[in-house]
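dumping this here before i forget
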Amino acid sequence: MSVESRVRLTRRPLVGVVLFMALCAPRAAQAAGQTYRLQLVRADGAGSCPSALQIESDVSQRLGRDPFSDEGERGIDIVLSRSETHWQAKLYLRIDSSDSDAARLIESDAPDCADLGKSVALAVALAIAPELPQQAERKPEPVCPPPVAVPAPPPKPSLHGEASLRLLFSPNLLPTSSLGTALAVTLRGELVGASFGGIFYPESELQTADAHLGFGVSSAFASGCLWARVRDPQVWSCIGARVGALHSVVYDPRPEQPGDHFWWAASSELGLRQHLFGRLFLEAGAAAVFPFVRHRFQVNAGEGAAPPATTRTVYEQGPAVVEGFVGLGLRLD
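structure:
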């Protein structure tokens, strides 16, 4: 006489399988250590259900061993099908000779066959080893979001000083191309600062047919500066003024007004600075100088002769002077 047990599953397949375990429990001692031959048939409409290999893998994972073999001593036959409203699994669990006609029916109204497949695997595992503990549904562990990175506070503007010694070159400040030196001291914050110091151009000689002269410049300067780029290489520009003296030396002929002449000018500077190591830096740049006082130096030609003497200009500064510089400096904190 054929025996059929029916278990209907809702969306939680473990509810029905607990009942199914009771049906299989009496065979526990006999099933231990035996091998089983599993055969699975997927009827029309059940093509999406798990395959025999998937069921065997699930059962082996639950038992912690592989109880299946093609030459198994006992047979487990499973038929999966789909009706209009639910999934069905008919299990023939021949755990021992007395189970030859025993059938178990599991049904599921889940939207897909995955839940039914899990229930079938659990039912087979419990039939083989009823002492297998129930696997509680694992709730996904909450995923802690990564800690929010707190941005570092912006660096506070630091007021500091800088000093640099510069080598100057100008093609037209004096009658001939000239080299000079400058000492520049800068007091600055992050973006703005002030620069001041001194400039010296040694005497540059000018010799013509009727005159032998020498000219030099020494002045102090002060400028307001803006740093357009504070990362290396740094870029800055300054606008300021120079005040000093234009030195004139007359070797020949006899001078009428020898000595120093007041000189002042406006200046605009653009520079580039690169940190080397420690507090040391290298800088280079160019400046435009606009003299407010343009002294004119003249020679009286034919002096002492009967005709009136003629006057000839031998040197006069232009309206704009170009100057380039390179320097080596030290940051003073």
